[in-house]
Backbone:
DNA sequence: TTGATATTCAACCAAATGGTTGACGTTTCT
DNA sequence: AGAAACGTCAACCATTTGGTTGAATATCAA
């Protein structure tokens, strides 16, 4: 079973995908335009966008022959909460956090 | 070239490794005790601990025949900084965090 | 010294990942 | 209608990942 959190972190582990997210921070983009700065095929970028979409980090909407990519920060928020909780352990409710982790484990 | 950020996110992408980090929140632990709750071999856990160590998320110190594992939350700082670029989580919002936890636990 | 405990190493395996190329279906433009 | 642009699909390939087992190493205890 792969959770949302698994997919989010796995998606963020690739520098190409992080770069794509950074580009989408500025504006929505078509797949071809996302691919333009990268030294790899369009198909490879298409796969990366698929990973980001599966992780919920972006959404894609087709209008005409152009597929627009849009940042979806909600998935990032969940991962960010997880990380910052570890980084600021003294500032949070550890019992509640551990309950959350146990819940995640049980699935 | 794999960056520190790549390794941090990749390490966090595995639920076993996140569970290990959660266990280490409570206290430092020996490798054998880390492995105890998991339905996999000690060697597998040893590898996971190697990944976490390479990512800087934990440190390991051998005393006698026991290797102690210790959480190193500072390694998450770089990843948190990256996330701040998205402007969604510039400072941890404890109220939002509590709400998030409540949702997770109810869900 | 002998034996148990703690941990890693090495070899292996299946599955996932990140990339390629070429063919393919849509949609738009002349 | 024909050609170009947009994007995905399918097949393939090399590498990495997450697990196994069995042997090896190091330390402690009797």
Residues:
């Amino acid at each position: 079973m792969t959770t949302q959190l698994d997919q989010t972190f796995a998606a963020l582990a690739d520098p190409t995908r992080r770069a794509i997210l950074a580009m989408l921070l500025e504006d929505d983009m078509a797949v071809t335009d996302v691919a333009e700065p990268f030294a790899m095929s369009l198909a490879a970028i298409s796969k990366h966008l698929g990973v980001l979409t599966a992780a919920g980090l972006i959404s894609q909407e087709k209008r005409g022959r152009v597929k627009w990519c849009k940042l979806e920060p909600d998935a990032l928020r969940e991962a960010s909460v997880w990380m910052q909780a570890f980084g600021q352990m003294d500032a949070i409710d550890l019992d509640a956090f551990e309950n959350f982790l146990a819940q995640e484990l049980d699935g």
